[in-house]
Amino acid sequence: MKADKKKTPAATATLDGDELRERVAKKAYERYLDRGQLDGYDLDDWLEAEQLVLAELGDEAGEKD
Fold it and tell me: Can you give the pTM of this predicted structure?
């Protein structure tokens, strides 16, 4: 019997730490630009970008299954 594949944040294994960090940084910068370059939201931008990137990676991993 085959083991069930579960979609987890382990999908990030396809990226190394530097690639993941670069992707999150790019997405956070896009959030900053979208807001009109207002300062003071860097942590919010980073955390939101991180969630978005991890969700994208999960979706990409799901497409490969």
Answer: 0.69
